[in-house]
Amino acid sequence: MSDDTAKPRLVPFAILLVVVALATAGVTALLLNISERKAEERTPFVRLVEVDEDTTDPEVWGTNWPRQYDTYKLTALPTRTRFGGHGGSEALPEQKIERDPWLERMFRGYAFSIDYRDRRGHAYMLQDQEETERLKVPQSGSCIHCHASVLPLYRELGDGDVMAGFEGTYAMSYQEANAKLHELGHGQPVSCVDCHDPESMAIRVTRPGFIQGIQRLAEGDAEVPHLPSIERWRDGPRDRPYDPNTDATRNEMRSYVCGQCHVEYYCSDKFTLTYPWGHGMDAEATEKFWNEVEFEDGERFYDYKHKETGAPILKAQHPEFELWSQGIHARSGVSCSDCHMPYMRDGATKVSDHWVRSPLLNVERACLTCHHFSAEEMLERVDQIQTRNFELLQNAGAALMDLIDAINAAREAGATDAQIAPALELQRQAQWRLDYIAAENSMGFHAPQEAARVLGRASDLARQGQVAALEWRKTVETAQR
Questions:
Q1: Residue 268's CB: how many other CB atoms inside 10 A?
Q2: How do residues 62-104 score in pLDDT, each as one tens digit?
Q3: Rounded to whole angstroms, how far apart are CA atoms 319 and 328?
């Protein structure tokens, strides 16, 4: 064979060697990359600083967990949707009581008639409480429970016993509790340590009010199909209280950590901060709980007496966790975190987005992972739901104002307290349901049908109260015959 014949035959062989070498190098690089990413996934963080139960500054935690801390810092940015949030450049959010004057009248006799603003992000939760005009009237130290990283404060006040420290704060003024918090060096809004174990980083609940409240729920007989761990606990020996940190599933915990604070509760100086879940979580169940509570003097519980009518009013706080529990998302196993803290990718690591905000501002990751429609379609669906609930809310607000007018007119015409007592009771019932949705920060979206039902019932009760106030004369005339 001549050299001229051999050279053409060697060319394909050389090309094949190059291709094999390149392919080998590519596969090797891919395998190395996969190995590196798996190692990164197994070790998502490296402890550069130690954190413990007294580390309340989120910046310190951010040294170890920069991905989460970077998104947590974004809660300081103004965000707004059509029906809520703070999107302006002003120092404080807009006043709800100026935008909807019926709110101010509804709350007369209570501090919310002085100052009631749109919400801001978690970064401001302590600052906004410290600066609210509501502090012009006495406020209980219990109020700091959900606005600050309070566990070190509770340990200090309770000589190491968190529950004892918590139970003592109701007798303190807000200013006393807040000053003590800062004195201890823990003047931080709710922080990493409030939701994460500093050793394992496992999510957990720490708020004593929630722990007591969820135990009341477990010990009751209300249906809780969205919380299977409670159903399992009920079927067991019940030889110990339900413990969310050991009994709950991880998916339940992804709602519990939010439900620690986004709830309805009593927060004043008559008794310890209380979550009213003994009969369940819907509007009627929580109302029943409060109706069974008495003050030390035997008087039925109320948050305040309405300045115009004298009705003993129940004030709803912000029952997001309760309303969510009545909706299809809860029944489908969708947690609060799935929508408000959806997973995101950072390199090979999957983390929860700690920029806690409305899912309407993050539709692609918050909604479209389950709903296979366009973002525009999802936004339109939500807007329709919220618009309908907003209209029902305004209708109920107008009905309540008519009821208050009718009660005032009856008093001016000479009606006694006994004669208008039925109208006052209906004001209490109607206002509770109206406020239950007005104070809840989703404009009904957390459980649309339930929100519409509650608002419809609020309007109905308000109109019944209006009729009762107008007909007191007939009652008197009938009695005189």
A1: 16
A2: 999 999 999 999 999 999 999 988 765 556 788 998 999 999 9
A3: 16
Which residues 6+ apart lie within 8 Å of 425 measured at CB? Answer: 311, 465
Which CATH number goes with the domain that contains 80? 1.10.1130.10
Can you tell me the distance from the alpha carbon of 454 to that of 448, in angstroms, rounded to the nearest whole number? Answer: 10
Residues 6+ apart with CB under 8 A from 368: 375, 378
Which residues are bridge partners to 214 per DSSP? none
How many domains would you assign to the chain? 2
The residues near 269 (Cβ < 8 Å, ≥ 6 apart) are 138, 140, 142, 170, 171
Last residue of a domain, one of 321, 350, 371: 371
Do 207 and 146 form a contact (C-beta atoms < 8 A)? Answer: yes
282 and 337 co-located in one domain: yes
Contacts of 431 (CB under 8 A, 6+ apart): 106, 311, 313, 314, 400, 458
Residue showing tokens 């106030």: 469
Q: d(Cα 55, Cα 62) in Å, to the nearest integer?
A: 11
Give the integer Cα–Cα distance in Å for 207 and 260: 6
Q: If we measure between CA atoms, which residue out of 205, 193, 285 comes closest to residue 245?
A: 205
Residue found under tokens 């109607």: 430
Q: How many CB atoms lie within 10 A of CB 49?
A: 10
State whether 362 and 433 are in the same domain: no
Q: Is residue 481's pLDDT more than 80?
A: no
Instruction: Check whether residue 106 and residue 148 sit in a common domain.
Output: yes
Same domain, 456 and 308: no
End-to-end CA distance of the chain: 136
Hey, is 383 helix, strand or coil?
Answer: helix
Helix, strand or coil for residue 431? Answer: helix
DSSP per-residue string spanning 172-208? SBHHHHHHHHHHTT---SS-GGGTB-TTT--B----H
Report the alpha-carbon distance of residue 445 to residue 393 in Å, rounded.
13
Residue 393's domain comprises 377-475
Q: Which of 317, 352, 371 is the last residue of a domain?
A: 371
Per residue in 389-439, pLDDT (tens digit) is 999 999 999 999 999 999 999 999 999 999 999 999 999 999 999 999 999
Find out whether 92 and 158 touch, Cβ atoms under 8 Å.
no
Cα(88)–Cα(95) distance, rounded to whole angstroms?
Answer: 12
Which CATH number characterizes residue 400's domain? 1.20.140.10
Question: Do both 408 and 343 map to the same domain?
Answer: no
Residues 112 and 176 in one domain: yes
